[in-house]
């Protein structure tokens, strides 16, 4: 696959990516290579990765606990302390080997350590391949509030090797699929139609096109002043739902993609009421979501708590929740104001 050139870094694929990483390490003469993993990637991905890394530099592995619940500043402090104790300096490099939590948190850690060291993202889940590892966003959660602390920082490169997907469960593949659906609905309906028809799906092609789309959007709007906001479709309400399930002791956590899928259905419904998005297409999106994801019953008594979390969304301005809504597939409107009543009505629609 041809390398995709982002603003300041390349996205390499498969065998070429390891050669390019080894060349980078030799060229920049890093003092130490730190590799950030969790308990899953140290067992399943690290043994695959390390034989492909050609270097005589010192390698140190730092392991954190997996899961969104550990994507916080306390984990960052632990990683910063580990890098310090292991002799990290400004000529060190951090390689993130894992899913979205690892790439988001690792990029943030690297960007802040000694005011910034180089980092490379190696995503190992579908979600991180098509979304988290590309685009220059890094950060952590504040309590259950998603991505409240962070900054824009670009890696030296991103390496995409789809064979890592063999190490993840089907639920994680489905989680990443939600982001591909988002790209299809907002930017390239061919992607949505391919998933909807479920015929001759080539995951590598879906990944490549998704990265192309995200890169095209980010190149035009790196700091999310306009066009890049379309990448938030489904995420405004979806993040609130994800946070609610994360903080609920009596409910099983939702994956990011499961929550975003619900958010997309709800935001399509809002679009139909405010922008005349065709009801037939709302039904198509809901049909696809329900066919892929186990239906989550959003309890009516939980709506108020979800609404409270929605008001903390990082994209809000002056306390106003802003949505990306659709007039049609590939035809969107930014910064839409939606009443609380319609938001609640949309969740009831998802339940119906």
From TrEMBL:
Q: What Enzyme Commission number(s) appear in the record?
A: 4.2.3.4
Domain 3-dehydroquinate synthase C-terminal residue range list: 176-316
Report the GO molecular function annotations: 3-dehydroquinate synthase activity; metal ion binding; nucleotide binding
Q: Which Pfam families match?
A: DHQ_synthase (PF01761), DHQS_C (PF24621)
Say which enzyme class the record assigns.
lyase
Q: Which InterPro entries match?
A: Dehydroquinate_synthase (IPR050071), DHQ_synth_AroB (IPR016037), DHQ_synth_fam (IPR030963), DHQS/DOIS_N (IPR030960), DHQS_C (IPR056179)
According to its UniProt entry, the protein's GO biological process terms are:
aromatic amino acid family biosynthetic process; chorismate biosynthetic process
* Domain 3-dehydroquinate synthase N-terminal residues, every copy: 62-174
Q: Which cofactor does it need?
A: Zn(2+); NAD(+); Co(2+)
Q: Which GO terms describe its cellular component?
A: cytoplasm
**The UniProt record lists the keyword Lyase:** yes
UniProt keywords (A-Z) are:
Cobalt, Lyase, Metal-binding, NAD, Nucleotide-binding, Zinc
Explain the purpose of this protein. Answer: Catalyzes the conversion of 3-deoxy-D-arabino-heptulosonate 7-phosphate (DAHP) to dehydroquinate (DHQ).
Could you tell me what this protein is called? 3-dehydroquinate synthase
């Amino acid at each position: 696959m041809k390398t995709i050139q982002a603003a300041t870094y390349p996205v390499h694929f498969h065998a070429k990516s390891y050669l390019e990483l080894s060349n980078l390490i030799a060229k920049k003469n890093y003092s130490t290579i730190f590799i950030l993993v969790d308990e899953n990637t140290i067992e399943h991905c690290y043994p695959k990765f390390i034989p492909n890394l050609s270097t005589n530099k010192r390698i140190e592995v730092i392991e954190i606990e997996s899961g969104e619940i550990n994507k916080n500043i306390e984990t960052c402090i632990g990683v910063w302390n580990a890098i310090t104790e292991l002799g990290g300096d400004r000529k060190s490099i951090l390689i993130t080997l894992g899913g979205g939590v690892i790439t988001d948190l690792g990029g943030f850690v690297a960007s802040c350590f000694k005011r910034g060291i180089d980092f490379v993202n190696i995503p190992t889940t579908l979600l991180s391949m098509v979304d988290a590892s590309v685009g220059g966003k890094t950060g952590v959660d504040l309590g259950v509030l998603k991505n409240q602390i962070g900054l824009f920082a670009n890696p030296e490169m991103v390496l995409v090797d789809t064979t890592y997907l063999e190490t993840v469960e089907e639920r994680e593949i489905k989680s990443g699929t939600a982001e591909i659906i988002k790209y299809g609905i907002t930017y390239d309906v061919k992607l949505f139609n391919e998933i909807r028809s479920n015929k001759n799906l080539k995951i590598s092609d879906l990944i490549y096109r998704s990265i192309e789309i995200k890169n095209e959007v980010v190149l035009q709007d790196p700091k999310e002043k306009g066009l890049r906001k379309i990448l938030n479709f489904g995420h405004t309400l979806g993040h609130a739902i994800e946070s609610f399930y994360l903080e609920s002791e009596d409910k099983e956590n939702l994956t990011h993609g499961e929550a975003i899928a619900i958010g997309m259905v709800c935001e399509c419904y809002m679009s139909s009421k405010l922008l005349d998005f065709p009801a037939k297409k709302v039904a198509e999106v809901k049909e696809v979501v329900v066919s892929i994801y186990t239906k989550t019953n959003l309890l009516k008594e939980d709506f108020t708590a979800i609404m409270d979390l929605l008001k903390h969304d990082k994209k809000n301005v002056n306390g106003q929740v802003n949505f990306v809504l659709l007039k049609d597939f590939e035809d969107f409107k930014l910064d839409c104001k939606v009443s609380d009543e319609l938001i609640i009505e949309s969740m009831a629609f998802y339940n119906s």
